[in-house]
């Protein structure tokens, strides 16, 4: 067994040729960042890895994206914490790429820079009325109930209406529907942000529509989440039987697709069991298919507020390559509502000095190696610069997807370092250089120990309310506790 | 030597001798009795169990099996030939690089726990809570795959999302060692070996 380990170690380790440690900076401390750091530490026994994040709290969407009623999904934080506490790893919170330190500066300080900062913006529909009050992106709503300090003061009104329309039928859309429809008593014992719990306790929302442009065969959610939402107590599920039948093209599509097949089966079963007559006050979840939002309707009584969505009915059209898109039929229909959540996808944000493909919303790259531009020319690489996670692949996938994404990027890095070893490689200032720069700029970075203080404070506050934690949700509170 | 002791004192002596000879496996065998609870971190199972009541229970069970096989008694706690109930089974893991590792896994232990106890690189992001697919293993032989109990809906939901899913894929945290699985071979799927990151499995959130 020891021989096996030694062999793999030798085949992976690189730095035996250089006399100075490999200095790596990972930007972003979500799953992509931590899996990359873990694999770099393992593959390069001399490497020092610094992880920076603009928040004082690490873990990215594991903390701010995973729904409060999905605590098992957050267990991976244990693994990430072990990485952060590794003696060759350092976490720097409250350090923002672009303002605290530029990309150019990082590339001067480190041999390898891996950008894993995800996608903090939203795809837009680009239709009239999109800026009416009451319309938000699902990302903002999720950040709001998960206590992200940037969305603490989201202008949300859950009391002016009984109906919410969610555009999109992926797992984020289901999360958001579930949080709106679950009895607040069930949410009270989760790590949901207190301000969100208070608002949900007073919420008048009783009907939620999950609207997709295409059909049930194309629904983007997965079985576990669908099963969960269909099983909520006292929730009446509405599905039009007319939307369900599969065309031969649909059959073709799900033939080799296990996820879609199982999702479709669940939706069919839900449609045939049918809604019982709703008792008064009972909550309703409606799955609406083949509807594309055309514009948002403005309220007459409350100017500037949304009062509904004008939808165009769609059909699926073949566009070659087995792909089908939704096209309008010229028939329209309105859905009244006081709140709209757009769950149509996240989008990455570019920074200065970073090649960016604005069309795809990602950094142009080949297996994680950043390309000089979007021309697709694989010979023009940005040396020492890599990407991982949503910034590399687009905003899809689950936490585990980043495991393989990180493996691919780390293999690219290791191959490139092996090539570099044959020439002389210069030492880089790394961590010391970063500390010096941040000090000069008076940036109050937060180390992992600061997060540990926040963590124990939140856990302690949570125990007073029978919650696993009571999150600190403002920048002031987070920074105050971090500095104690 | 053992046989003469039995003929003198009957079953009770046998019971005592058995206990003495097999003290270590009994504590491990205590896993058999313990229900597999998803709400605990799997590291709970790495603690040896020293519950004397449980030991007696297990021994009594084994006694009835032992009774048939006097001739194969041994003084060691190594695995025995024949159809006797074994305290541990032989499992082979094939890692991402094709390197094989042969283990003995106590009956009742999951393959995920066994992998971690033996420094095998099998991820376990949710630590056995059926909330991820990172402990995905591929059962190398259909014969062994068929000996496993059908996956529950919950496991199938997670398998849906597993990278490089095959016809004989299972979650390592749900494959529990039992005697029929002796000799099972499990492969850990490799990301960069055969699949591009954006493989055939569509990736939802």
UniProtKB/TrEMBL annotation, chain A:
<keyword id="KW-0813">Transport</keyword>
<feature type="binding site">
    <location>
        <position position="397"/>
    </location>
    <ligand>
        <name>NADP(+)</name>
    </ligand>
</feature>
<comment type="similarity">
    <text>Belongs to the ferredoxin--NADP reductase type 1 family.</text>
</comment>
<dbReference type="InterPro" id="IPR055275">
    <property type="entry name" value="Ferredox_Rdtase"/>
</dbReference>
<feature type="binding site">
    <location>
        <position position="32"/>
    </location>
    <ligand>
        <name>FAD</name>
    </ligand>
</feature>
<protein>
    <recommendedName>
        <fullName>NADPH:adrenodoxin oxidoreductase, mitochondrial</fullName>
        <ecNumber>1.18.1.6</ecNumber>
    </recommendedName>
</protein>
<feature type="binding site">
    <location>
        <position position="225"/>
    </location>
    <ligand>
        <name>NADP(+)</name>
    </ligand>
</feature>
<keyword id="KW-0521">NADP</keyword>
<feature type="binding site">
    <location>
        <position position="390"/>
    </location>
    <ligand>
        <name>FAD</name>
    </ligand>
</feature>
<keyword id="KW-0285">Flavoprotein</keyword>
<feature type="binding site">
    <location>
        <begin position="169"/>
        <end position="172"/>
    </location>
    <ligand>
        <name>NADP(+)</name>
    </ligand>
</feature>
<dbReference type="InterPro" id="IPR023753">
    <property type="entry name" value="FAD/NAD-binding_dom"/>
</dbReference>
<feature type="binding site">
    <location>
        <position position="97"/>
    </location>
    <ligand>
        <name>FAD</name>
    </ligand>
</feature>
<dbReference type="GO" id="GO:0005739">
    <property type="term" value="C:mitochondrion"/>
</dbReference>
<feature type="domain" description="FAD/NAD(P)-binding">
    <location>
        <begin position="23"/>
        <end position="197"/>
    </location>
</feature>
<keyword id="KW-0249">Electron transport</keyword>
<dbReference type="InterPro" id="IPR021163">
    <property type="entry name" value="Ferredox_Rdtase_adrenod"/>
</dbReference>
<feature type="binding site">
    <location>
        <begin position="213"/>
        <end position="214"/>
    </location>
    <ligand>
        <name>NADP(+)</name>
    </ligand>
</feature>
<dbReference type="GO" id="GO:0016491">
    <property type="term" value="F:oxidoreductase activity"/>
</dbReference>
<keyword id="KW-0496">Mitochondrion</keyword>
<feature type="binding site">
    <location>
        <position position="61"/>
    </location>
    <ligand>
        <name>FAD</name>
    </ligand>
</feature>
<feature type="binding site">
    <location>
        <begin position="397"/>
        <end position="399"/>
    </location>
    <ligand>
        <name>FAD</name>
    </ligand>
</feature>
UniProtKB/TrEMBL annotation, chain B:
<dbReference type="GO" id="GO:0046872">
    <property type="term" value="F:metal ion binding"/>
</dbReference>
<dbReference type="InterPro" id="IPR012675">
    <property type="entry name" value="Beta-grasp_dom_sf"/>
</dbReference>
<dbReference type="Pfam" id="PF00111">
    <property type="entry name" value="Fer2"/>
</dbReference>
<dbReference type="InterPro" id="IPR036010">
    <property type="entry name" value="2Fe-2S_ferredoxin-like_sf"/>
</dbReference>
<keyword id="KW-0408">Iron</keyword>
<dbReference type="InterPro" id="IPR018298">
    <property type="entry name" value="Adrenodoxin_Fe-S_BS"/>
</dbReference>
<dbReference type="GO" id="GO:0009055">
    <property type="term" value="F:electron transfer activity"/>
</dbReference>
<dbReference type="GO" id="GO:0051537">
    <property type="term" value="F:2 iron, 2 sulfur cluster binding"/>
</dbReference>
<keyword id="KW-0411">Iron-sulfur</keyword>
<dbReference type="GO" id="GO:0005739">
    <property type="term" value="C:mitochondrion"/>
</dbReference>
<keyword id="KW-0001">2Fe-2S</keyword>
<dbReference type="InterPro" id="IPR001041">
    <property type="entry name" value="2Fe-2S_ferredoxin-type"/>
</dbReference>
<dbReference type="GO" id="GO:0140647">
    <property type="term" value="P:P450-containing electron transport chain"/>
</dbReference>
<protein>
    <recommendedName>
        <fullName>2Fe-2S ferredoxin-type domain-containing protein</fullName>
    </recommendedName>
</protein>
<keyword id="KW-0479">Metal-binding</keyword>
<dbReference type="InterPro" id="IPR001055">
    <property type="entry name" value="Adrenodoxin-like"/>
</dbReference>
<feature type="domain" description="2Fe-2S ferredoxin-type">
    <location>
        <begin position="89"/>
        <end position="192"/>
    </location>
</feature>
């Amino acid at each position: 067994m020891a021989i096996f380990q030694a062999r793999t170690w030798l085949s992976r380790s690189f730095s035996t040729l250089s006399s100075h440690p490999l200095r790596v900076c990972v930007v972003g401390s979500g799953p992509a960042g931590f899996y990359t750091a873990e694999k770099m530490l393992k593959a390069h026994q001399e490497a020092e890895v610094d992880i920076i994040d603009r928040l004082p709290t690490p873990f990215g969407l594991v903390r701010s994206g995973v729904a409060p009623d999905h605590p098992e999904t957050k267990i991976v934080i244990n693994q990430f914490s072990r990485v952060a506490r590794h003696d060759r790893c350092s976490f720097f919170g409250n350090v923002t790429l672009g303002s605290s330190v530029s990309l150019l500066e990082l590339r001067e300080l480190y041999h390898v820079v891996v950008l894993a900062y995800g996608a903090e913006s939203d795809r837009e529909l680009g239709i009239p009325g999109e800026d009416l009050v009451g319309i938000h992106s699902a990302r903002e709503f999720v950040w709001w109930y998960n206590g992200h300090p940037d969305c603490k003061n989201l202008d949300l009104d859950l009391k002016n209406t009984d109906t919410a329309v969610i555009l999109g039928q992926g797992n984020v859309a289901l999360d958001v529907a579930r949080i709106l429809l679950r009895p607040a008593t069930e949410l009270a014992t989760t790590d949901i942000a207190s301000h969100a719990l208070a608002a949900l306790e007073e919420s008048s929302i009783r009907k939620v529509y999950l609207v997709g442009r295409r059909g049930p065969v194309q629904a983007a959610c997965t079985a576990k989440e669908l099963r969960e939402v269909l099983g909520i107590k006292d929730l009446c599920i509405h599905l039009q039987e007319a939307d369900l039948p599969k065309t031969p093209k649909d059959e073709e599509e799900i033939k080799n697709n296990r996820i879609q097949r199982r999702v479709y089966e669940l939706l069919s079963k839900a449609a045939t069991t049918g809604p019982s007559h709703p008792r008064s006050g009972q909550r309703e979840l409606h799955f609406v298919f083949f509807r594309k939002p055309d514009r948002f309707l403005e309220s007459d009584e409350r100017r500037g507020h949304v009062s509904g969505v004008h939808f165009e009915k769609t059909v699926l059209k073949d566009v070659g390559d087995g792909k089908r898109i939704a096209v309008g039929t010229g028939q329209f229909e309105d859905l009244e509502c006081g709140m709209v959540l757009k769950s149509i996808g996240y989008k990455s944000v570019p920074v200065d000095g970073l090649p960016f493909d604005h069309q795809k919303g990602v950094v142009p790259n080949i297996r994680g190696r950043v390309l000089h531009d979007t021309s697709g020319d694989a010979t023009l690489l940005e040396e020492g610069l890599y990407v991982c996670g949503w910034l590399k692949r687009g905003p899809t996938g689950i936490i585990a997807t980043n495991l393989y994404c990180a493996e691919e990027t780390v293999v690219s890095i290791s191959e490139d370092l092996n090539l570099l070893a044959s020439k002389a490689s210069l030492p880089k200032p790394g961590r010391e250089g970063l500390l010096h720069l941040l000090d000069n700029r008076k940036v109050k970075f937060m180390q992992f120990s600061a997060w540990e203080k926040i963590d124990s404070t939140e856990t302690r506050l949570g125990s007073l309310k029978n919650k696993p934690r009571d999150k600190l949700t403002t920048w002031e509170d987070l920074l105050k506790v971090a500095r104690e | 030597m053992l046989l003469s002791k039995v003929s003198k004192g009957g079953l009770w002596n046998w019971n005592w001798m058995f206990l003495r000879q097999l003290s270590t496996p009994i504590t491990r065998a205590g896993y058999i009795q313990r229900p597999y609870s998803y709400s605990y971190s799997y590291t709970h199972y790495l603690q040896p169990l020293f519950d004397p009541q449980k030991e007696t229970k297990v021994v009594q069970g084994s006694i009835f099996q032992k009774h048939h096989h006097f001739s194969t008694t041994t003084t060691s706690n190594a695995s025995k030939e024949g159809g006797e109930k074994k305290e541990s089974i032989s499992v082979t893991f094939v890692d991402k690089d094709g390197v094989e590792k042969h283990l003995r896994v106590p009956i009742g232990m999951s393959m995920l726990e066994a992998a971690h106890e033996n420094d095998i690189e099998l991820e376990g992001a949710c630590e056995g809570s059926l909330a991820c697919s990172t402990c995905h293993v591929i059962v190398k032989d259909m014969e062994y795959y068929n000996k496993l109990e059908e996956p529950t809906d919950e496991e199938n939901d997670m398998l849906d999302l597993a990278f490089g899913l095959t016809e004989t894929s299972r979650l390592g945290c749900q494959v529990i060692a039992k005697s029929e699985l002796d000799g099972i071979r499990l492969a850990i799927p490799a990301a960069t070996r055969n699949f591009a990151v954006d493989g055939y499995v569509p990736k939802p959130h």
